[in-house]
């Protein structure tokens, strides 16, 4: 009896995947629900499990091959006993080493007394120099030229490695280039005094974590601040569809997460209806799924706006690229103490540069600046978030 391994449904609008890795080889024993093969789509990676126990009879799609939904990946010989893979120690065999052949002895170039003295002083071997004197003698000029010659790089120590781009990396590259080619992207900057939110977090972080079971971070505050600003400036939450503008009255905020496979943007749904604790929990849940490679298509689709925090990697300032078809993205950066002027006095404050990249086809300069000012005001005075101001 044979059990087929089929490419499962990959989610809305995704029709094909690439075979990233087989965990078994033909003839190996498999158990029901054991991961057999890893598929990679333009959004996520996913594992396909064994549909029955037995031996892997055949692999019909090799690693690196692109397969469609419903395609046959392999066949299990149900109930058969397969091989149990185990590493084998290499067996040492006696090696017959031939005796080294006698090489002809090279005659070292001759050198005069002055040249020999210079060779002793410099530590250079006469045999490493091609003499230019009479009868091939080594001269002082030959030694000086050898001593001053730059060392040749060891070319044989340099190496290259050619690796095929993953499906996810290919799509990231394609989408980012499409974003630059399609949208009229501009970026506006501002800076935020983080003193009040840092003090707020220091005062309530222990009580917050004790009550809600999650740490209080800055991302939830920025998501809330962005939602408030989106309500004030609806164009930033809209998108262009043909010759129409689609204004969205809901707030699904994408949160950029870096993984070993690349950048993914899972979406916090209905962020306007969530508390700070609920936003933190949802971000944590999605980030963990991203790191494990278990994000579903539903986790990644449909965002209306994105927040990206380059500060976790030490970025002081950047110009984030819009995640199409969205019209804006907010970039957070590293908080760093800097001298600023307040009421005629120079003081040291923890400051963060923030950036809004936006599609100028739909968002005007006034709207983009106002949006960023709204975010700045909300973070510098967190009471505004409670009052919805």
Detailed description of the structure:
The protein has 389 residues and is an alpha+beta fold. The protein contains 9 helices and 19 strands. Strands 9, 12, 15, 16, 17, 18 and 19 form a 7-stranded mixed sheet that branches. A 4-stranded antiparallel sheet has the order 1-8-6-3, with no helix packed on it. Strands 5-4-2-7 form a 4-stranded antiparallel sheet, with no helix packed on it. Strand 10 and strand 11 form a beta hairpin. Helix 5 packs across helix 6. The longest helix is centred in the middle third of the chain and has 18 residues. About 5% of the residues have low confidence.
Which range best describes the helical content: under 10%, 10-25%, 25-40%, 40-55%, 55-70% or over 70%? 25-40%
- Backbone shape: flat
Q: What's the mean pLDDT score? A: 82
* Cα end-to-end separation: 67 Å
How would a textbook summarize the main sheet?
7 strands, mixed
Q: Structural class of the secondary elements?
A: alpha+beta
- By oligomeric state, this entry counts as single chain
- Number of H/I helices: 9
The portion of residues forming beta strands comes to: 25-35%
Low-confidence stretches: 86-95, 99-106
Following the backbone from N to C, one meets helices and strands in this order, namely: EEEEEEEEHHHEHHEEEEEEHHEEEEHH
What is the number of strand segments?
Answer: 19
Tell me the radius of gyration.
Answer: 32 Å
């Amino acid at each position: 009896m044979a059990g087929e391994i089929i490419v499962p449904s990959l989610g809305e609008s995704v029709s094909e995947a690439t075979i990233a890795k087989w965990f078994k080889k033909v003839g190996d024993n498999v158990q029901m629900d054991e991961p057999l093969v890893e598929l990679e789509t333009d959004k996520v990676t996913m594992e396909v499990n064994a549909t029955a126990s037995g031996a892997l009879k055949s692999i019909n799609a090799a690693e690196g091959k692109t397969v469609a939904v419903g395609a046959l990946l392999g066949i299990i010989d149900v109930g058969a006993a397969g091989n149990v893979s185990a590493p084998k120690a290499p067996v040492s065999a006696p090696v017959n080493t031939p005796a080294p052949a006698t090489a002809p002895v090279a005659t070292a170039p001759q050198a005069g007394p002055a040249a020999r003295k210079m060779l002793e002083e410099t530590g250079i071997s006469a045999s490493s120099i091609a003499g230019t004197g009479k009868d091939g003698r080594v001269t002082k000029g030959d030694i000086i030229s050898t001593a001053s010659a730059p060392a040749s790089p060891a070319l044989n120590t340099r190496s290259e490695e050619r690796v095929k781009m993953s499906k996810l990396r290919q799509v990231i590259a394609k989408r980012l280039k499409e974003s630059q080619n399609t949208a009229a992207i501009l970026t506006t900057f501002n800076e935020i005094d983080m003193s009040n939110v840092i003090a707020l977090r220091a005062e309530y972080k222990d009580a917050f974590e004790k009550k809600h079971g999650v740490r209080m971070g800055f991302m939830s505050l920025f998501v809330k601040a962005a939602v408030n600003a989106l309500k004030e400036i609806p164009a930033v939450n809209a998108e262009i569809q043909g010759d129409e503008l689609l204004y969205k009255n809901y707030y699904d905020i994408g949160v950029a997460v870096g993984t070993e496979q690349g950048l993914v943007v899972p979406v916090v749904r209905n962020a306007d209806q969530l508390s700070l604790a609920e936003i933190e929990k949802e971000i944590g849940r999605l980030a963990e799924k991203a790191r494990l490679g278990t994000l579903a298509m539903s986790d990644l689709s449909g965002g209306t706006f994105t927040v990206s925090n380059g500060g976790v990697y030490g970025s002081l300032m950047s110009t984030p690229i819009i995640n199409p078809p969205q019209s804006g993205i907010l970039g957070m950066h590293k908080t760093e103490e800097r001298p600023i002027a307040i009421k005629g006095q120079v003081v040291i404050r923890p400051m963060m540069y923030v950036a809004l990249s936006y599609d100028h086809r739909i968002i005007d300069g006034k709207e983009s600046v106002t949006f960023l000012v709204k975010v700045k005001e909300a973070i510098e005075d967190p009471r505004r978030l409670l009052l919805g101001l």
